[in-house]
Amino acid sequence: MSRTYLSIYLQDHLAGATAGVNLARRASRHNEGTPTGRRLEQIANEIEADRDTLVGFMSELGVPSSWSKIATAWMAERLSRLKPNGRGHGDTVLLRMHELEALSLGIAGKQSLWEGLRMAPQSAAIANLDLDALHERARSQRERVEMERIALARVALSLSRDTPHHRLDEARSAPAGD
After folding, report:
1. Which of the chain's ends, N or C, has fewer CB atoms near its CB within 10 Å?
2. End-to-end distance of the chain based on CA atoms, in angstroms?
3. Residue 165 pLDDT > 50, yes or no?
4. Domain map of the chain by residue range?
């Protein structure tokens, strides 16, 4: 991977990681006070630590952050909140399911980053990364998010648009393999 391509690749992933941290924090908040919320908060903390690792790695390589890419990713994550959710406002079980789907896809992208860096010319900076551990953590994050997503999907896809709010509250606290 050329130095130019490596820089672009890392900047793209940093932008995605920024959006991922925001999405993970939002998903955690939307499930606050539940076992799912606590699990998602832990995953959000890990995703933020992974982003910090990427920032440190880029700094060590002398790769500048692309603030325009970061701002674009930040804005895209914010705009994704405007998606109609069937009720016109507020939180829905379907919205939370979509968040977890997007989070799972983002984590898959992060797994690809760690795999891709194995193809880069070896350097001291790359040698300082434990790519195996980073990849394994991403795999674990995705597995845990998928467990939550599947549990939520079971409930969400069995609800109708006219389901009483108490059923939506049940969906909020749907267990994911406790």
Report:
1. C
2. 43
3. no
4. 3-172
What's the pLDDT band for 177 if we cut at 50, 70, 90? very low
Question: How many helices (H) and strands (E) would you count in the chain?
Answer: 7, 0
- For the beta carbon of residue 35, count every other beta carbon within 10 angstroms: 15
Question: Virtual CA dihedral for 107, 142, 45, 55, nearest 10 degrees?
Answer: -30
Structure tokens at 130: 């434990």
Query: DSSP of 114-126, one letter per residue?
Result: HHHHTTSPP-HHH
DSSP letter at 133 equals: H
- Tens digits of residue pLDDT in 67-84: 777 766 666 676 666 655
Of 20, 2, 13, which is closest to residue 115 (Cα–Cα)? 13
CATH architecture of the domain 3-172 equals Up-down Bundle (1.20)
Q: Which two tokens stand for residue 22?
A: 């925001």
Asked whether the beta carbons of 32 and 96 are under 8 A apart, the reply is no
pTM for the model: 0.80
Helix (H/G/I), strand (E/B), else coil: 66: coil
- pLDDT bin (cut points 50, 70, 90) of residue 55 is very high
Q: How far is CA 84 from the centre of its chain?
A: 21
